[in-house]
Automatic annotation (TrEMBL):
Keywords from the UniProt entry: ATP-binding, Hydrolase, Magnesium, Nucleotide-binding
Protein name: AAA+ ATPase domain-containing protein
Positions of the AAA+ ATPase domain: 242-385
Region (Disordered): 449-470
Length: 470
């Protein structure tokens, strides 16, 4: 058995050696930080740090995936950023691919670490995962990332480095992003709204080029969006939340939903489809709001159905069409709850958010929804115009001119045909002559207000069948 003195002296020797190693490492770090580029420094550190991971008085920041109900964006940003730091020297990596993702995502597994250097500061990232038990005895995993560095750099790391990580991850995301559509799914009767957003890839081909709408309005909207994303500092300076609201109104089939998809594809923002009929009360609405991530478009389609909301508010559960058994005060979704939600968007901490309402009947909306400041821009989507028709003809038939264009233009000024109707006619044949002749007949029929102009029997039958489907 070793004596106390020999244990002590072994300990002292060990400590001295440790300090020596530390000294050598920090000496190397000091030299390398002056002479060697960041990338190489990080590589050297990964070799040395792997042998001896502690340097001086260390501080560790813990970045969890969720903070209560809300997703921690710093966690996602760090994960994306760290994907660029992954090296073949790592032993375990997590790989995943969503069914519609076009690339495999590679992330660090728990216990793996990478080193980084930022303005001479050396940093160590480590992926962690803690298993916890819930009330029912089930296991859940809490993922996190830890960032360690010398404590004297705390301020710089928090204020500059993390900002740099976020900016870099944004740039990466913008380059690779597949726009996602989040929706509430079938929650009827579940009453449980926790983590209730499900997501798929948006996969909607709409772009501004392909959209038939008033060219001036289109330009104004694109400029507005550009200004919005550019103006982060401006919003900060004037003390306004970085949010924007659009109301899209017009008859069915004029491209309101397509326009939302075009906006999402243009900005590379995710879309959150907030279907009011699957929301039971104001507090669910608030909870959903908190879990919405930045850089997103929140969509409430057919907002004129807020009339339903008012009924729910006024009439209690027997008027509730969805059969939700809503009783007692404070357990309904109300118009004022919705207004609070919108205003909450304006005061919540989230950034880069857009809210879009669509309606077929602007005049039916509660004036409170239209008050200045709630919706920044009102966009009218209307029946097809000659210039809209040019866009559709180019999309569907790949033509920019045709003998029938003049006649179609004339007819279009006289009848109300939606872009969806025109698009349907143009899809009937790949042959431009046949498709356009069909369109002329369709418009003439509309003009006469009967479905039965000089078509032959076959076409008439076809048309009738289609019209009855409308
Ligand atoms: N302005 C448009 N430009 C190009 N295509 C359009 C336009 N409007 C409609 N379409 C075509 O018609 C289809 C239906 O349009 P969309 O769903 O965007 O209309 P909407 O205005 O949202 O209708 P609703 O009020 O019924 O929701 C689209 O998928 C698209 O193919
Ligand atoms: Mg729509």
């Amino acid at each position: 058995m070793p004596s106390t003195t020999s244990v002590l002296s072994t300990y002292t020797t060990f400590t001295a050696t440790t300090m020596l190693v530390r000294g050598v490492i920090s000496e190397i770090q000091a030299i390398t930080s002056q002479l060697i580029p960041n990338r190489l420094q990080a590589l050297l550190l990964s070799k040395l740090g792997g042998l001896y991971p502690n340097w001086g008085s260390q501080m560790t920041l813990i970045i969890d995936d969720y903070e209560g109900y809300s997703f921690n964006e710093l966690y996602e940003a760090s994960q994306i950023y760290l994907q660029t730091k992954i090296t073949p020297s790592m032993e375990r990596l997590r790989v995943s691919k969503g069914s519609k993702d076009n690339k495999v995502a590679v992330t660090m597994d728990k216990g793996e670490a990478v080193f980084d250097v930022f303005e001479g500061i050396q940093l160590r990232w480590e992926a962690t995962c803690v298993e916890t038990k819930d009330e029912n005895g089930g296991k859940t995993e809490k993922r996190g990332i830890e960032l360690s560095f010398h404590s004297k750099y705390m301020e710089k790391v928090i204020n500059s480095y993390l900002e740099y990580v976020i900016e870099t991850s944004k740039a990466i995301q913008e380059k690779n992003q597949v726009v996602k559509l989040f929706s509430l799914g079938d929650m009827a009767g579940s009453g449980d709204m926790d983590g209730s957003w499900g997501s798929t890839n948006l996969d909607h081909p709409a772009t501004f080029d392909k959209l038939a709408m008033d060219p001036a309005m289109k330009k104004e909207l694109i400029d507005d969006l550009d200004r919005f994303v550019r103006r982060r500092d401006f919003y900060k300076k004037v003390g306004k939340a970085w949010k924007r609201g659009y109301l899209l109104y017009g008859p069915p089939g004029t491209g309101k939903s397509s326009l939302i998809a075009a906006m999402a594809n243009y900005l590379k923002f995710n879309v959150y489809d907030l279907e009011l009929s699957s929301i039971y009360n104001n507090s669910d609405l608030r909870r959903l709001l908190v879990s919405i991530r930045n850089r997103s478009i929140i969509v409430i389609e057919d907002i004129d159905c807020t009339i339903d909301i008012e009924n729910r508010q006024a009439g209690g559960h027997d008027q509730d069409k969805g059969g939700h058994d809503l009783q007692g005060k404070g357990h309904e979704l109300t118009l004022s709850g919705l207004l609070n939600f919108i205003d909450g968007l304006w005061s919540s901490t989230g950034d880069e958010r857009i809210i879009v309402f669509t309606t077929n009947n602007k005049e039916k909306l509660d004036p409170a929804l239209l008050r200045p400041g709630r919706m920044d821009m009102h966009i009218h989507m209307s029946y097809c115009t000659p210039s809209g028709f040019r866009v559709l003809a180019s999309n569907y038939l790949d033509i920019t001119s045709h003998d029938l264009f003049h006649e179609i233009d004339q007819l279009m000024m006289e009848v109300e045909a939606t872009p969806a109707e025109i698009a349907e006619e143009l899809m009937r044949s790949e042959d431009a002559d046949i498709a356009l002749e069909g369109l002329v007949k369709f418009l003439q029929n509309k003009k006469l207000g009967s479905g039965k102009l000089d078509s032959n029997g076959e076409e008439e039958g076809f048309k009738e069948e289609n019209e009855s489907n409308e």
